[in-house]
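Board notes (copied after class):
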Amino acid sequence: MTCPEAAPARSTAKGAAAWEQGWYAYARRSESPNFGPRPPQTCVDLVVLHSISLPPGQYGGPQVQQLFTNQLDWNAHPYFKQIEGLQVSSHFFVQRGGELWQFVSCEQRAWHAGRSQHAGRDNCNDFSIGIELEGLEGDLFEPAQYETLSALLSALAQVYPLRHVVGHEHIAPGRKHDPGAGMDWALVQRCSALDAQAFSGVTKKI
């Protein structure tokens, strides 16, 4: 696939114009109540990639958006009873066709990582931006998702000092396994224009 136009990993007037108080102009906005303030003086330098589908393996419905906004009907599918009452969120969600949603301002702390650690720091929610990709852990993702993800990472790097991009599996090993072996980390790095060092925390060699 062709990479989106590369963007410099520094703040520019053009890049900043796409953002307003942590909201990205090119994402569909659906505000989640599941968020909180980041600790004072937090440096947001980590992106965590996840995979999600509801019910597992079924794509295209509104269930993920409903989960992140506390509107999911727990009785609509047997699987939902297993997660009933769960209150979670992510900053972004990329559907199979590349559609981009945002639920929490990047200035705020979304509830996506849970118990986690990265580079000696606990509670990754405090200093990370969470991006969910519609899919099953270990399975392949769609070209349109990589295009959207790469463009989003480039846009984020224009306004946040991103230093690391990892999967949920890398910050909660043994507890989480997403996005899994189906993630093409080399493609994400190449198309996002982020330095290869930002991906040094992923276990798959790129």
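Comment from the instructor: Residues 1-11 have pLDDT under 50 and may be disordered. Residues 13-198 form a domain with the Lysozyme-like fold (CATH 3.40.80.10).
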